Amino acid sequence: NAAGGFATAGWRARGDAPALGHVSDLEVLAPPDPAGADARRVGALADLIETVGTDPAVAVVGETRDPDGVAESLRRGGRLETTVELGAPGPDERAAVLRAETRGLPVAADTDLDAVARRTHGFVGSDLAALCRAAVAHAVGRGSEPDAVSAAGFPAPPATGRPLPQRGVTARVP
Asked: Among 12, 47, 71, 102, which one is most buried in terms of CB atoms within 10 A?
Protein backbone atom coordinates (compact mmCIF):
# COMPACT_ATOMS: atom_id res chain seq x y z
CA ASN A 1 0.00 0.00 0.00
CA ALA A 2 1.91 3.02 -1.30
CA ALA A 3 -0.32 5.58 0.43
CA GLY A 4 0.20 3.94 3.82
CA GLY A 5 3.95 3.65 3.28
CA PHE A 6 4.24 7.29 2.24
CA ALA A 7 2.16 8.43 5.24
CA THR A 8 4.35 6.43 7.63
CA ALA A 9 7.48 7.91 6.07
CA GLY A 10 6.03 11.41 6.45
CA TRP A 11 5.27 10.98 10.14
CA ARG A 12 8.71 9.47 10.80
CA ALA A 13 10.43 12.37 9.01
CA ARG A 14 8.51 14.95 11.02
CA GLY A 15 9.26 13.08 14.25
CA ASP A 16 12.97 12.87 13.45
CA ALA A 17 13.35 16.48 12.24
CA PRO A 18 15.63 17.84 11.05
CA ALA A 19 15.31 15.25 8.32
CA LEU A 20 15.91 14.75 4.63
CA GLY A 21 13.60 12.48 2.66
CA HIS A 22 14.98 10.92 -0.51
CA VAL A 23 12.71 9.45 -3.18
CA SER A 24 14.59 7.70 -5.98
CA ASP A 25 13.38 6.59 -9.40
CA LEU A 26 10.58 9.16 -9.59
CA GLU A 27 10.02 8.31 -13.25
CA VAL A 28 8.92 4.84 -12.12
CA LEU A 29 6.89 5.92 -9.07
CA ALA A 30 5.20 8.86 -10.77
CA PRO A 31 4.95 8.54 -14.57
CA PRO A 32 3.88 11.61 -16.57
CA ASP A 33 0.32 10.42 -17.34
CA PRO A 34 -0.69 8.36 -14.29
CA ALA A 35 -3.86 6.28 -14.32
CA GLY A 36 -5.39 3.81 -11.87
CA ALA A 37 -2.90 2.61 -9.26
CA ASP A 38 -0.25 4.98 -10.63
CA ALA A 39 -2.58 7.94 -10.09
CA ARG A 40 -3.25 6.87 -6.48
CA ARG A 41 0.49 6.47 -5.85
CA VAL A 42 1.23 9.91 -7.37
CA GLY A 43 -1.51 11.45 -5.22
CA ALA A 44 -0.15 9.80 -2.07
CA LEU A 45 3.38 10.96 -2.88
CA ALA A 46 2.13 14.51 -3.54
CA ASP A 47 0.30 14.48 -0.19
CA LEU A 48 3.45 13.29 1.58
CA ILE A 49 5.60 16.01 0.04
CA GLU A 50 3.04 18.71 0.87
CA THR A 51 2.61 17.44 4.43
CA VAL A 52 6.28 17.24 5.32
CA GLY A 53 7.00 20.35 3.26
CA THR A 54 5.13 22.46 5.82
CA ASP A 55 7.85 21.64 8.37
CA PRO A 56 10.90 23.85 7.74
CA ALA A 57 13.14 21.20 9.35
CA VAL A 58 12.20 18.55 6.76
CA ALA A 59 13.20 18.53 3.10
CA VAL A 60 12.31 16.09 0.34
CA VAL A 61 14.63 15.37 -2.57
CA GLY A 62 13.42 13.43 -5.58
CA GLU A 63 15.81 11.65 -7.94
CA THR A 64 15.22 10.71 -11.54
CA ARG A 65 17.17 10.07 -14.70
CA ASP A 66 14.41 11.77 -16.70
CA PRO A 67 12.87 14.94 -15.17
CA ASP A 68 10.37 15.14 -18.03
CA GLY A 69 9.29 11.56 -17.27
CA VAL A 70 7.81 12.55 -13.89
CA ALA A 71 4.19 13.53 -13.29
CA GLU A 72 3.82 17.30 -13.68
CA SER A 73 1.70 17.38 -10.52
CA LEU A 74 4.83 16.59 -8.49
CA ARG A 75 6.92 19.29 -10.18
CA ARG A 76 4.91 22.32 -9.16
CA GLY A 77 5.20 24.88 -6.37
CA GLY A 78 5.07 23.43 -2.87
CA ARG A 79 6.22 20.02 -4.01
CA LEU A 80 9.36 19.21 -6.02
CA GLU A 81 9.56 22.69 -7.47
CA THR A 82 13.30 23.01 -8.16
CA THR A 83 15.08 20.87 -10.73
CA VAL A 84 18.83 20.45 -10.65
CA GLU A 85 20.39 18.34 -13.39
CA LEU A 86 23.87 17.00 -12.80
CA GLY A 87 26.11 16.17 -15.72
CA ALA A 88 28.81 13.56 -15.96
CA PRO A 89 31.95 14.26 -13.91
CA GLY A 90 35.06 15.83 -15.44
CA PRO A 91 38.50 14.18 -15.52
CA ASP A 92 39.47 15.28 -11.99
CA GLU A 93 36.20 14.01 -10.52
CA ARG A 94 36.50 10.74 -12.45
CA ALA A 95 40.05 10.30 -11.09
CA ALA A 96 38.73 10.85 -7.55
CA VAL A 97 36.02 8.22 -8.13
CA LEU A 98 38.61 5.77 -9.49
CA ARG A 99 40.82 6.35 -6.44
CA ALA A 100 37.85 5.76 -4.14
CA GLU A 101 36.85 2.60 -6.03
CA THR A 102 40.39 1.18 -5.88
CA ARG A 103 41.07 2.17 -2.26
CA GLY A 104 42.10 -0.95 -0.39
CA LEU A 105 42.94 -2.84 -3.58
CA PRO A 106 46.47 -3.83 -4.51
CA VAL A 107 47.17 -1.42 -7.38
CA ALA A 108 50.37 -1.79 -9.41
CA ALA A 109 52.80 1.12 -9.54
CA ASP A 110 52.30 1.40 -13.33
CA THR A 111 48.58 2.14 -12.92
CA ASP A 112 47.92 5.80 -13.73
CA LEU A 113 44.35 6.42 -12.61
CA ASP A 114 44.52 9.98 -13.96
CA ALA A 115 45.19 8.54 -17.44
CA VAL A 116 42.25 6.14 -17.05
CA ALA A 117 40.08 9.11 -16.01
CA ARG A 118 41.14 11.10 -19.07
CA ARG A 119 40.07 8.32 -21.46
CA THR A 120 36.65 7.75 -19.85
CA HIS A 121 34.88 10.93 -20.97
CA GLY A 122 31.14 10.71 -20.27
CA PHE A 123 31.45 8.03 -17.60
CA VAL A 124 29.64 8.47 -14.28
CA GLY A 125 30.35 6.77 -10.94
CA SER A 126 28.57 3.51 -11.76
CA ASP A 127 30.42 3.24 -15.08
CA LEU A 128 33.76 3.81 -13.34
CA ALA A 129 32.91 1.25 -10.65
CA ALA A 130 32.20 -1.31 -13.40
CA LEU A 131 35.53 -0.44 -15.02
CA CYS A 132 37.31 -1.09 -11.69
CA ARG A 133 35.51 -4.43 -11.28
CA ALA A 134 36.68 -5.40 -14.77
CA ALA A 135 40.28 -4.51 -13.82
CA VAL A 136 40.03 -6.67 -10.68
CA ALA A 137 38.56 -9.55 -12.71
CA HIS A 138 41.45 -9.21 -15.17
CA ALA A 139 43.95 -9.36 -12.30
CA VAL A 140 42.32 -12.41 -10.74
CA GLY A 141 42.14 -14.14 -14.13
CA ARG A 142 45.88 -13.86 -14.68
CA GLY A 143 46.78 -15.03 -11.16
CA SER A 144 46.99 -12.16 -8.72
CA GLU A 145 50.25 -10.82 -7.34
CA PRO A 146 50.37 -8.36 -4.44
CA ASP A 147 50.20 -5.54 -7.01
CA ALA A 148 47.56 -7.29 -9.12
CA VAL A 149 45.45 -4.42 -10.48
CA SER A 150 47.50 -2.95 -13.30
CA ALA A 151 46.96 -0.36 -16.02
CA ALA A 152 46.60 -3.19 -18.54
CA GLY A 153 43.65 -4.51 -16.52
CA PHE A 154 41.51 -1.46 -17.22
CA PRO A 155 39.71 -2.27 -20.47
CA ALA A 156 39.29 0.40 -23.12
CA PRO A 157 36.01 2.25 -22.48
CA PRO A 158 34.09 0.79 -25.46
CA ALA A 159 34.76 -2.74 -24.14
CA THR A 160 32.98 -1.91 -20.87
CA GLY A 161 29.73 -0.78 -22.45
CA ARG A 162 28.42 2.67 -23.22
CA PRO A 163 28.49 5.26 -20.45
CA LEU A 164 25.29 7.02 -19.47
CA PRO A 165 24.29 9.81 -21.85
CA GLN A 166 25.79 13.21 -21.24
CA ARG A 167 23.53 15.67 -19.50
CA GLY A 168 23.98 19.40 -19.09
CA VAL A 169 23.94 21.16 -15.75
CA THR A 170 20.88 23.35 -15.31
CA ALA A 171 18.68 24.61 -12.53
CA ARG A 172 15.03 25.58 -12.98
CA VAL A 173 12.99 27.40 -10.37
CA PRO A 174 9.36 27.99 -11.44
From this structure: 71
